[in-house]
Amino acid sequence: MTSHQVLGKQVDMPVEIRAASAFMAMHSVPAVAAQSLIDYSGLEILQFRPGRGVCVLVFVDYVDGDLGPYNEFGVAFLVRDHRSDGASVPQDLKALARGRAGALIHQLPVDGDFTLAAGRGIWGFPKVLADFDVDHTGSVKRGSVSQGGRLIAQLSVKQGIPVPGSGAGTSLAAYSHLDGLTRFTTWDMSPTGVRSRPGGAELKLGSHPIADELRSLGLPKRALVTSSIPELKMTFGDAQPV
Fold first, then answer.
1. In CA terms, which of 43, 54, 56, 133 is 20 to 30 Å from 172?
2. Which Gene3D superfamilies did the record assign (predicted)?
3. Could you report the per-residue pLDDT of 93-147, keeping only the tens digit for each?
């Protein structure tokens, strides 16, 4: 078992999140515009249909985990596995169906110093400090994130219908890029009580540069799918260079 020193504390791998909740909106975005935002990573946008990729906006409340309690807002893109030997829409759809798509964590504001240091130091996640106002408990989930007094995004997600089979574990390759190095991490999730629906999101963008990035993708617009996860357990392994 490996371990890392973070701000004078030892963090043993894998890192476990014993209790968290999340809500998210998935948007169809132009693949060319999305690719231009992530070219730095060396990865390729996964296309679920010709010329269209997927951008995920997600708020997570980490309640009990090895990195302490904190809030997080993620901007992620579905990407092709760096080990895949093909690049076509049919192959992308096959990868999606088989759970072999990856997620590049492109932006990751948080509100905790320890998770900031751990996320950047252990996995190369692009964590930055920000301010949060979030409600995970109401029937409509709401989150607002800002930095330096400038709104990044405000997202609300209406309640969906229960998803059969939620509670089954799933694994994802989570990609990150920091200091010129792209890494990938095995990210295991065990969600309970998942609810999803088509659309169902309201998104407001502010004056922050991250908001401008999202506007360059044609947002805000109707979401493809929204989901809420009241109970979420996760495990993060060590990162490996791509």
1. 133
2. Acetoacetate decarboxylase-like (2.40.400.10)
3. 888 888 788 999 999 999 999 999 999 999 999 999 999 999 999 999 999 999 9
